[in-house]
Fold this sequence. Notes:
Blueprint: H1 9-16, E1 73-75, H2 83-86, E2 101-103, H3 104-119, E3 125-128, H4 133-150, H5 163-172, H6 181-191, E4 208-212, H7 243-251, E5 257-259, E6 284-287, H8 290-297, H9 304-313
Antiparallel strand pairs: 1-2, 3-4, 4-6, 5-6
Amino acid sequence: MKTLSILSLLLIAQISQGQVARNPSPVKPKMTECLFCEIGIGSKNSPRQISETSVVGKPATEGLPSLYEPQDLVDINPKYMTPLYQKNFTPQYIASGKMEKMRLNAYQAMTRLLDAARAARVDLFIHSAYRSYEVQCRVFSGKLVKQLSLDGFISKQYTSPYALSEMTSDIKAGYQPEFTRDQLQQAITEVNTRSALPGQSEHQLGSVADLVTMIPKYEPATPSEAKPQYSGYALEYEMQDTPAFKWLQENAYKFGYVLSYPNSEALDFAKPNSRTGYIYEPWHWRFIGADYATRFKNCGRLVLREFLKAIDQNPAYQCNKSHISTAH
């Protein structure tokens, strides 16, 4: 089969998800730190009003424009960030020297939440928050490089947190990845159960925080450069078994925060929930305001996007008894 140009990847992914027309106008790719981004796609404009309660998901009607950025982003005080961040460690996709950000209302509520957690002696920090379209592209692309390698669709092995930059360097040195269109789509589909395509991430709203607590299983007995001290503050499903997660379940709604991506119907953390399209993310908390969050807490069987679609149709929407379960 014919192999694929590396720079055509994101456009193919967007077409496959119905985000752009099948015959788009030619767009010259902008080579950035994100190998696969064609930043020219999209605009600052959206056919719908973007708000704290906007539905953001995989359907084209639920996407965000590539240049959309909230106007009220503020810096997060490093004291609320994971200890790894406080030690001048930042994830690969955060530019050196840049602070993590959130929208003002969401940040103010988050600081109250974290202060209350600390007062209750609950160990809880922010891992990441706002991501632009381009940053999300780098996040997705990094995971995609690792998936292509894991599946054996490329000859080189990329397994480190720096897989994307490693492949970038190799391509600049002359390497041509060998994956085919079908192999690429297979890898995209797999990665897209645990990471949003650019334009489909709630993080772009600026009102989401990935929260972490210490999970001893992931803390190295002997820290190293590859796995430094505080690596136990990890985005892993075992967070569901921690005191921090229990506290969030009982208290986050009071500060306007709700869980976006619950476990799958089969209670299998490795399988995506058919109603969200994503795997279980006990760390992903979104601000929708205390009133809506309180009402959502009473909708035990609804996932967040279903609730947000309901209040979009009727802001006074209340769950009826058929929506309520004892499990939250």
